[in-house]
């Protein structure tokens, strides 16, 4: 393979919305939903439920515009700082945080985590709490 044809995420970026729509959207076929959303949320919820991890600030450095994995941490950290490697990812997260038209809909992840916590009726409150915890977004 010609090394000139390779793309590097931190240099060339990628279309974060396509990434979200392909792997994380709540679509009828739900091909990737279990592997990319349900299983990680179940694992993190079990880990956080033991009460061994807590603090004032959580710094998250994740690929793309992903935020769903932060739901279990909302109850154990005062602030969450999101660091991303590309400005497009920050813009996509800001659209969601500001509840702008066209923002990616993460509500299905709030529903999943509240069901895991046995509080399925509180999914909208969970989404609001998640938005309030994200106090800073920045590019690395």
UniProtKB/TrEMBL annotation:
GO cellular component: cytosol
Keyword S-adenosyl-L-methionine appears in the UniProt entry: yes
Protein name: Uncharacterized protein
GO molecular function, one term: N-methyltransferase activity
Pfam families xref list: NNMT_PNMT_TEMT
Region listing for Disordered, in residue ranges: 121-140
Biological process annotations from GO: methylation
Transmembrane segments: none
Family, per entry: Belongs to the class I-like SAM-binding methyltransferase superfamily. NNMT/PNMT/TEMT family.
Keywords: Methyltransferase, S-adenosyl-L-methionine, Transferase
């Amino acid at each position: 393979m010609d090394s000139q044809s390779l793309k590097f995420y931190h240099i060339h970026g990628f279309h974060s919305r396509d990434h979200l729509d392909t792997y994380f959207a709540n679509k009828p076929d739900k091909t990737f939903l279990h592997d990319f959303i349900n299983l990680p949320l179940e694992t993190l919820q079990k880990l956080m439920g033991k009460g061994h991890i807590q603090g004032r600030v959580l710094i998250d450095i994740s690929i793309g515009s992903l935020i769903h994995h932060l739901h279990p941490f909302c109850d154990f950290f005062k602030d969450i700082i999101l660091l991303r490697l590309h400005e497009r990812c920050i813009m996509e997260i800001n659209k969601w945080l500001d509840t702008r038209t066209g923002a990616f809909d993460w509500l299905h992840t709030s529903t999943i985590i509240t069901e895991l916590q046995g509080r399925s009726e509180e999914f909208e409150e969970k989404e609001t709490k998640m938005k309030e915890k994200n106090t800073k977004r920045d590019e690395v």
